Fold TetR/AcrR family transcriptional regulator.
Amino acid sequence: MTSDRRRIHPRKQPRQARAELTRQRILDAAAHVFGEMGYAAGTTNRIAERARVSIGSLYQYYPNKDAILLELVTRHLDEGRQALERLREETLPGTLEGIFRAHVRIVIDNHRDDPHLLQVMAEQAPRASEVLERVSRYERERVAYVEELLTRHPDARVRDTHVAARLIVATVELLVHQLTAAPDPVEAGRLENELVAMVTRYATGGGAV
Amino acid sequence: MTSDRRRIHPRKQPRQARAELTRQRILDAAAHVFGEMGYAAGTTNRIAERARVSIGSLYQYYPNKDAILLELVTRHLDEGRQALERLREETLPGTLEGIFRAHVRIVIDNHRDDPHLLQVMAEQAPRASEVLERVSRYERERVAYVEELLTRHPDARVRDTHVAARLIVATVELLVHQLTAAPDPVEAGRLENELVAMVTRYATGGGAV
DNA sequence: GTCTATAAATAGATAGAC
DNA sequence: GTCTATCTATTTATAGAC
């Protein structure tokens, strides 16, 4: 029989690392399948197949289909959130245009990997309650951030800061989704410039920036 | 037995009218169910139930579920399209802001009935090929219209008219969807003003409007 | 023309062998 | 830990009585 020492310290024991790798494979496969086929057609069987894992194994890593999507959404949101947090700490100095540019760039970068997946997540996922909650919480944070900016920054000229902030956040998010995932996508640099122009001119009341 | 005359001219024969009414009932029910529950959860059984028609009857009017959605989408697009067509004939005089206002108002009006349904149609329907084709054709028409406007109108100050037109059309459409269907919708009149301000300032290069 | 009952297909999820 | 085989639920769609 195997000694206790052997059992307690099997050599090069890759348990956790291997499991983590499989999780990641499943997640990558799900990202691909959802992005390519949409949420409904992205079945667990197809995800398992692409991850080259049996359906049974998939269910050992995730309790159900929505849990996979939830993790995908959570990771995406967390990346954006962290980037925004860094921005928030760095800049209050700078022009309004400069701040908006940083903001827009974060959103575009955050969507570069897989625009189609992001579109699926933004459009089809939110019906699931927990995903919806996370998305809307993140959105509220961003609106609050922009609203504060519109209140404090000397360049800002808007009457209702709350509504204006909602418009700005929605504009950036939705247009990046739409125009990077379109069949004929707008090039990233140009999109950045145009979006910055749009929201800056809006926020500064149409005066010179 | 019944005479030939009786068979050919049954009195007050309501065949077509009644059928048309049933079709409309099914369509209304589908609009409600899709808008309330989304596309996937909007099953044919639920639609039939709400229309107070048996499932068998429903399939006598529509060959499948997607055909119902397609008709819903088509009707919506046609309404917007006709309104846009009227606008196009009436105005080339007027300020750029005035034209944009008319444009924005059309979109808002076109979404007033049932914002949630429209959001479902915009988000979940497009995966179906035929619907996608119609939606993108209508969108191309609108982009072409705005692009021409940006090219000809003296107030317009944009470099790349095509990209600018895409941004403007997408902004109006997406923000109306998002902000009228949100849990805390932005009031229609205010939304109109803010959207007009945003796209006008963008199109006029940030100068005074 | 409308209904009930059900067929056919496919999804998500689980059991149990290995 | 991973697999195959299978269950259960649900959906679209059809058949056939009335």
About this structure: The interface with chain A takes residues 38, 40, 123-124, 127, 160, 163-164, 166-167, 170-171, 174-175, 178-179, 186, 190, 194-195, 197-202, 204-209 of chain B (CB under 8 Å). Residues 16 and 201 of chain B are 52 Å apart (CA to CA).
